[in-house]
TrEMBL record:
This is thiazole synthase. Pathway: Cofactor biosynthesis; thiamine diphosphate biosynthesis. GO terms for molecular function: thiazole synthase activity. Its EC number is 2.8.1.10. Catalyzes the rearrangement of 1-deoxy-D-xylulose 5-phosphate (DXP) to produce the thiazole phosphate moiety of thiamine. Sulfur is provided by the thiocarboxylate moiety of the carrier protein ThiS. In vitro, sulfur can be provided by H(2)S. Keywords: Schiff base, Thiamine biosynthesis, Transferase. It catalyses: [ThiS sulfur-carrier protein]-C-terminal-Gly-aminoethanethioate + 2-iminoacetate + 1-deoxy-D-xylulose 5-phosphate = [ThiS sulfur-carrier protein]-C-terminal Gly-Gly + 2-[(2R,5Z)-2-carboxy-4-methylthiazol-5(2H)-ylidene]ethyl phosphate + 2 H2O + H(+). GO terms for biological process: thiamine diphosphate biosynthetic process. Gene3D superfamilies: Aldolase class I (3.20.20.70).
Amino acid sequence: MTERITASGVRMTSFWHCFGTERHRADLDTVIGLLRASGTDVLPINTHRLDDDRRRDALEHGFAGVTYDRLAEHVDVSGYVKMVNVNLRTTADEAAHVAKLAVELTGERVIKLEVLTPDLRSSRDAAVVEVARRLLRWEPSLVVLPLLSNDHEAARAAVDAGCPLLRVMGSPIGARAGITDPAAFARTCALPVPVVLDGGIGSTDHVRDAAAAGASGLLVNSVLFDDGRPPVEVMADFRASAEEHFGAGALSELTRG
């Protein structure tokens, strides 16, 4: 595997992460520590609090009020691929609406898209594909990166809709069960776009499994906080595994002071 992924001309490291969940709230020091430890150049910007008021302080990293603008006061974010993270939305209409609001507010064009089931653990695949089509009709220059369940037909539909990279769940969000159907996952990895394992990662063994199945990269989140150790320590283990199996590159020092 190479250390970079390319989607519609956007080049990214193959190791991605988020900054916690509603149960796992990362403060500013933890957010900066995770960025340093991971070496990623992918920076998701959550939109779960964004509404028609279009307040910039609704754009945050994680769930503890670390806003995009606040992080930029401490970290030079110019070298990152900023992703509008359409998270915690459960209908196609609200996901499409929030994505458009965020694009207009930030000017960013990379969309990390999800439409979840009401329990927030699985993907509503048909709705995700529908939103991807809507967004690309609205603005063809967008780079829409959908989250899908481990379903090959849904993956093919997303590619047909114009998605240049797929984020595929190995198992439900937070399950930590890894890739429960490796054959289906490998079949999707054979499609002509990069595939990132995103969902269900529970150990560094699952990094190895993703690479063996043909994935181009992976995303970790809740496992960083569920391990029992400080999340920055857990991140270091996953980065080492990602570098071993994907050749994930790291940025040089990004934090100012």
